[in-house]
Design brief:
This protein is of the alpha+beta class. The chain has one domain: Cyclophilin, CATH 2.40.100.10. 13% of the residues lie in helices and 29% in strands. The radius of gyration is 22 Å and the shape is elongated.
């Protein structure tokens, strides 16, 4: 999508960072690498995005870096066109902002189908930054023109609930919905595993016997 110038998760099995998550997308199960999976929490529920470093390695690396820095937390979907796409990732909420680090285009032959996640840009193919969009339906007119870096594999029904914009204003949303939190799945799973570890017992202080009784050393 041009940027203005200026399913459900099943049980997770984990062992450290060697984790295989089975997700259901369109009725088919697939194995996901948590390091290349995003959890995008909306007010309605969690959206799970499978990242595609095989298609766009530099873009995936940047999105993960921004997510880990909390860049996307609280950022709105400022432009949502019913039946087409939802665009967000601009910290200013105006469609003109970004992280300040431009990306070179990583166009591919991957088709734009429902749930595809791609980078927004201006007329310059190498102007993508932090803004992205998710398509609600197949959009073959976009094929090969925008960097696809992922696809929603669970929670697309939550994306469908995002507040729609005014068609007369090119989909700009008044009082838009926001991303509550964006995280790399591997980080979430690692934190959960760490929280389950037994806490070390506190060492009891040494004691000594004195004429006045037993006291801490």
């Amino acid at each position: 999508m041009r940027r203005r110038n200026g399913g459900r998760p099943m049980k997770l099995w984990s062992r450290g960072f060697l984790v295989v998550a089975l997700l259901v997308a369109g009725g088919a199960a697939w194995a996901a690498n948590p390091e290349d999976t995003l959890y995008m929490d909306l007010a309605f529920g969690r959206v799970i995005i499978e990242l595609r470093p095989d298609l766009a390695p530099a873009t995936v690396a940047q999105v993960k870096k921004l997510a880990r820095a909390g860049f996307y937390d609280g950022v709105v979907f400022h432009r949502v066109i019913d039946g087409f796409m939802a665009q967000g990732g601009d910290p200013t909420g105006t469609g003109t902002g970004g992280s300040g680090h431009k990306l070179k285009a990583e166009f591919s032959s991957e088709p734009f189908v429902r749930g595809v996640v791609a980078m927004a840009r201006s007329s310059d193919p190498n102007s993508a930054d932090s803004q992205f969009f998710i398509v609600f339906a197949p959009a073959p007119a976009l094929d090969g023109k925008y960097t696809i870096f992922g696809r929603v594999v669970s929670g697309m029904d939550y994306v469908d609930q995002l507040k729609k914009g005014d068609p007369a204003r090119n989909g700009i949303v008044a009082n838009p919905d926001k991303i509550v939190k964006m995280q790399v799945a591997a980080d979430v799973i690692a934190a959960e595993d760490k929280a389950k570890l037994p806490k070390p017992k506190e060492q009891e202080p040494e004691q000594v016997v004195t004429p006045h009784g037993i006291v801490p050393k």
